[in-house]
Design a protein that fits this description.
This protein is an alpha+beta fold and 94 residues long. The protein has helices at residues 9-18, 49-58, 72-78; strands at residues 2-5, 24-30, 35-41, 61-63, 81-83. The chain has a domain at 16-37 and 44-83. It is 29% helix and 26% strand. It has a 5-stranded mixed beta sheet with strand order 2-3-1-5-4. The longest helix has 10 residues, at 9-18.
């Protein structure tokens, strides 16, 4: 799950799709970055997580662990958004 600034959402989703990832975009406000943003959801096989993170990092999106002080305020200034990697027991593509 990546929360990105609204103005970066289209470019971020496009880059992920071009890299072969499926992405669902949800317009969101507040929450982690405390501003208008977009939440991108993607189910990714374990062996492709680092590849996806590399795409996101090229665009300025950081993982929660790499954000200074791991706070919403610092995450917002550290890049274009923040990504959370969560283990999921199961997901299916349709």
């Amino acid at each position: 799950m990546a929360v990105v600034q609204a103005d970066a959402a289209a470019k971020t989703a496009e880059a992920l799709i071009e890299a072969g990832f499926r992405v669902t975009r949800i317009a969101t406000t507040g929450g982690w970055l405390r501003r208008e943003n977009t939440t991108l959801l993607s189910g990714v096989e374990d062996e492709r997580v680092e590849e996806m993170l590399a795409v996101l990092h090229r665009l300025g999106v950081r993982t929660a662990q790499s954000a200074p002080d791991n706070t919403p305020e610092n995450a917002a200034t550290a890049g274009r958004g923040i990504v959370f990697v969560m283990d999921v027991e199961r997901f299916e593509h349709y």
